[in-house]
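Homework-ish question, so no full write-ups if that breaks the rules, but can someone show me the predicted structure for this set?
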Amino acid sequence: MPDRRQLLLVVITLVILCLPLIVQNTYFLGILIVIGLYAIIAGGLGVLMGYAGQVSFGQAAFYGLGAYAAGILATRYHCPPLLCIAIAPLLPTLIALLIGRSILTLREHYLALATLGFGILTFAFFNEFTELTGGPSGLTGIPYLSIGSFVLDTDREYFYLVWLAFGLTLLGIANLTKSPVGRAFKAIHSSELAAEACGINCASLKLQAFGLSAFLAGLAGSLYAFWVTFLGPSPFGFTASMEFVLMVVVGGLGTLWGPLLGAVIIVGLAEFLRWAVPVVLPAAGGEFEIVFFGIIFVLILLLRPQGILIPALNQKDRNRKMRDRQCSA
Amino acid sequence: MGIESQYMQYLFSGLTLGSIYALIALALVVTFNITGIFNLAIGEFLAVGALSAVSLRAIGLPDVLAFALAVLIAGLLAALMERTTVYPARKASVLTLIIITIGVAIALRGAALLIWGTHPYPLPAFINVPPLNLWGAVIVPQSLLILLLAVTAVGLLFAFFELTYVGKAVRAAMINRTAARLVGIYPERLSLLAFTFSGVLAALAGIFITPITTATYDMGFMLGLKGFVAAILGGVTNVTGAIVGGLLLGIVEAIAIGTLSSGLKDAIAMIVMIIVLLTRPTGILGSGRNSI
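A: Not a homework solution, just the prediction itself:
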């Protein structure tokens, strides 16, 4: 039913366009911007996980690399912000392409651990190389994004920029998945061996997907840098990497809208719990709302392991198919 | 202090922390080979064990009883985790299982934060003996106790594997799950045992390290991760490898902290892990697959 789909698309676009007009509160507007940024990262990771079938628990490292690259270019070399946003994502992409060739030969647990290790390594780098990154005290003095004399210094303007970037990302991914490359990704996901047998160069394609995911994470990072104008290492740690994976899985692997839905759910849930838990349990301090965060994720994964967007009935079929495949393997 | 005694010092502090890594790696390897799951929540059992021990001691229980109860708590918690999350999802994809164990880890860490807060809890050394002086290196007695714990745990584990019926069944399931099933062993049933065992072992490691490092709600994350590095260093399928990997990682880290910078300690473990994964995925002990 293409008509209903198009209608849905128009509705979603309109809602997004109108949101900043309805939401006046800067706190909520900030959350919406974060959702947009995370949706870009999750979108890239969704291509890697949902289509190419590879996992990365180090995505926050690419996010951070993009942010720091943009921040350092802007503060130290006084690059015009727009040029920074164009150049900065190239750094994580390059690193992903460099490490990807060897890391992506690993599978399952080993790939998860290797990418996780890379994430922690990069995080230590952000903390330790204080001359370059400012270390734990942070990198300050990043200017606002300006195009000519037009300065994007309000959250509302930034909202439109971030969501424009997300829209373009989504469009790109939608086209990619319909292209021969996208179909080749899906083939790799189903069976690498069979894909190789059909003449698909798995290693190269997996690398491309990894590079794309790093590029998008870097893009979100550079956008983030010019929004907050201050960079500390904390948003780029393991927790963030894991949240990105959760967004993709919760939204539904291999779906176009899944990563956006996942980002909405996870950012929304985290913020809701941060607000709700102290109201219900005023005695406790710290960020222990992560208890509920953890429990809710385990529940979602137990009840809907294929993600929220995939209908339950369909899921049963898939499970059966998966079992058949395992039996015949 | 001469250069030799300095390296002696690194060696001993490396062996101490390395023994802890080895114990965690041991727990991970046994669980992994029986269930096919890397339990990313292992560090949280270590933290829960250590923190419970401190609290139980604080309410006036004698040391030994407090420690035994704490170990029991961690073991039961691990068993509960297996029954409520891992077992129902045992047919799910590897990715789902990894995320489930991470989810459990987050929930447990949050619960620990809720119960114990953020500040560190000390525990006095188990025995009151002045530090020893060995070849110019100073060794706290607690380090020796940790080494003793590691040796005892490994010894008991070997005895369990070699002498008991269940141990042999576990070994069979570790070597080949399908073949084990063919001769009437249920790897699924052993899964509960494996998780309980890993919780117990992690809690013991946590309690023994606390007099040296103090216990905090988030102590488990990095220690658990180092346990993974140790397990990978040793080749994951290999109990001996896990021990060697743990000790080796401890020593490498200690030398790196001494000669480079303490801030890069975690980075070094990760570099070691990535290099081993890429160059020797079967671990430093080489191709001896499935040997116990």
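Now go work out the reasoning yourself. Hint: The longest helix of chain B spans residues 3-35.
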